[in-house]
């Protein structure tokens, strides 16, 4: 029921009552039935009026509720506006500030009440004011600007990098009557971005120089290997064919040439492997083989070395299924490295190699020694290339510091892991966990 309807209803009742009054005065005065009928009709009309009044009252209550809701909403938006972390401004179409929130007053370093009435352009440095005016026109015509970056200056004339998003406020005909602005100080972000870019560039340069280093290493090692193989080969031939013609001194010289040549070759091979692994060029040639036999071969090869040092070299094979899928040459290289180190860094006692299975899919090879051990601090670095612990000790033992780096990289290729436990003066335990079947 709206107000007009209610008024017409009241009008209707009034007409009805006038009509009835006319009839009573004109028609026979003492007619009781007419009086009763009149009163009844009046009652009916009154009831209708009551219903209409009730309806109006209800509508009125609803209107009060709506009004309250609107007030609450307005309050909420005002609070959101006031306490928003970003700076918000409302301006007219010329950029004159009508309203500003707290963040805006903080950003522009001026009290809110003083902000009102000022032109937003006074916070734009002279050099960029033309650009700003152009953007203002653009905003007026196109109704929106997004993430526009410009230098602003606060009331103290300190400039900062600002990101602006703005939209027009339109009347019901779509005509722009004002503008709302969101200002965000992005100086810190810009600085961080610049820093990231700098670090990325440094990173790129580092990667590039590391790649170049690996390439030089690979080429150099390759070029060295051929003549070195010839030196070792010819010295060997010399020794075998003319052994009786040499004096003991000459024989010793040739043997030293061969020994040092072989050491050098080992070093070059290590460098080649490492360069290949670092460049991701090294691939595994997978095949099925008997791991027990492989471990036997490794310990046989190193038996002489251990014997020379009076070290007991033991193997313990606790495995049911001895067949694995892996690259036998690379696995031999990996395990030989660990066993060789164990013997190299042990002066008395023993070195043991144990093979067991963790479950159907995994095998474990443990290399344990009673050698010099590795301190906790050094343990963190031993897998890094060219890292050798305690130079005074290792200087007596030969090595490049590449062995464990190669072991680690090979294990990554094989999908395996390595852990070390060690106590200085008591010995070390290297535990290699490998999938029984390595994935290609
Ligand atoms: P290196 O060619 O010097 O042996 P590795 O990469 O194989 O290089 O080993 C790095 C360093 O880790 C070694 O120089 C040595 O100090 C330490 N290390 C490796 N294995 C053992 C071990 N079993 N006992 C004590 N120290 C070890």
Secondary structure: elements and pairs:
Elements: H1 3-26, H2 32-83, E1 87-91, E2 97-100, H3 102-107, H4 112-115, H5 129-142, E3 144-153, E4 159-170, E5 176-185, H6 187-241, H7 248-278, E6 287-290, H8 291-308, E7 312-318, E8 323-326, H9 328-344, E9 350-359, E10 362-369, H10 376-379, H11 391-394, H12 403-414, E11 417-423, E12 427-435
Parallel strand pairs: 7-9
Antiparallel strand pairs: 1-2, 1-5, 3-4, 4-5, 6-8, 9-10, 10-12, 11-12
The chain binds adenosine-5'-diphosphate (ADP).
Please provide a written account of the structure:
The protein is an alpha+beta fold and 440 residues long. It has 4 domains: 3-81; 84-185, PAS domain (Beta-Lactamase, 2-Layer Sandwich); 191-278, Helix Hairpins (Orthogonal Bundle); 287-435, Histidine kinase-like ATPase, C-terminal domain (Heat Shock Protein 90). The chain contains 12 helices and 12 strands. The protein has a 5-stranded antiparallel sheet with strand order 2-1-5-4-3, with helices on both faces. A 5-stranded mixed sheet has the order 7-9-10-12-11, with helices on one face. Strands 6-8 form a two-stranded antiparallel sheet. The longest helix has 55 residues, at 187-241. The protein is elongated and about 165 Å long. 19% of the residues are buried. Residues 391-397 have low confidence and may be disordered. Bound molecules: adenosine-5'-diphosphate.
């Amino acid at each position: 029921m709206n107000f007009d309807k209610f008024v017409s209803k009241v009008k209707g009742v009034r007409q009805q009552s006038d009509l009835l009054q006319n009839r009573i005065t004109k028609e026979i005065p003492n007619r009781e039935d007419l009086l009763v009928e009149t009163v009844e009709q009046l009652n009916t009309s009154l009831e209708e009026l009551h219903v209409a009044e009730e309806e109006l009252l209800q509508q009125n209550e609803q209107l009060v509720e709506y009004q309250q809701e609107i007030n609450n909403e307005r309050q909420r938006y005002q609070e959101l506006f006031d306490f928003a972390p970003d700076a918000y401004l409302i301006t007219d179409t010329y950029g004159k500030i009508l309203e500003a929130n707290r963040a805006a007053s903080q950003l522009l370093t001026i009290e809110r009440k003083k902000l009102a009435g000022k032109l937003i352009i006074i916070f734009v440095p002279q050099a960029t004011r033309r650009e700003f005016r152009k953007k203002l026109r653009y905003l007026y015509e196109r109704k929106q600007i997004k993430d526009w970056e410009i230098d602003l200056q606060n009331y103290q004339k300190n400039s900062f990098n600002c990101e602006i998003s703005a939209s027009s406020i339109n009347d019901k005909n779509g005509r722009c009557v004002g503008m709302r602005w969101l200002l965000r100080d992005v100086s810190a972000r810009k600085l961080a971005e610049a820093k990231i870019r700098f670090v990325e560039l440094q990173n790129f340069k580092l990667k590039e120089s590391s790649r170049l280093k690996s390439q030089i290493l690979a080429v150099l090692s390759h070029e060295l290997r051929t003549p070195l193989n010839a030196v070792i080969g010819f010295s060997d031939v010399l020794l075998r064919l003319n052994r009786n013609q040499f004096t003991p001194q000459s024989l010793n010289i040739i043997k030293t040439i061969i020994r040092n040549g072989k050491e050098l070759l080992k070093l070059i091979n290590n460098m080649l492997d490492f360069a290949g692994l670092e460049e991701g060029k090294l691939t595994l040639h997978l095949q099925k083989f008997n791991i027990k036999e492989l471990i036997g071969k490794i310990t046989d090869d190193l038996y002489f070395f251990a014997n020379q040092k009076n070290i007991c070299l033991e193997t313990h094979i606790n495995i049911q299924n001895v067949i694995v899928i892996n690259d036998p040459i690379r696995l031999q290289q990996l395990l030989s490295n660990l066993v060789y180190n164990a013997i190299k860094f042990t002066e008395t006692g023993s070195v043991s190699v144990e093979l067991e299975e963790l479950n159907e899919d995994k095998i474990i090879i443990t290399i344990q020694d009673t050698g010099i051990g590795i301190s906790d601090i050094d343990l963190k670095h031993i897998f890094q290339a060219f890292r050798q612990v305690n130079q005074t000790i290792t200087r007596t033992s030969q090595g490049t510091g590449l062995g464990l780096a190669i072991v680690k990289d090979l294990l990554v290729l094989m999908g395996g892991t390595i852990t070390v436990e060690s106590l200085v003066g008591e010995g070390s335990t290297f535990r290699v966990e490998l999938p029984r079947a390595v994935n290609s």
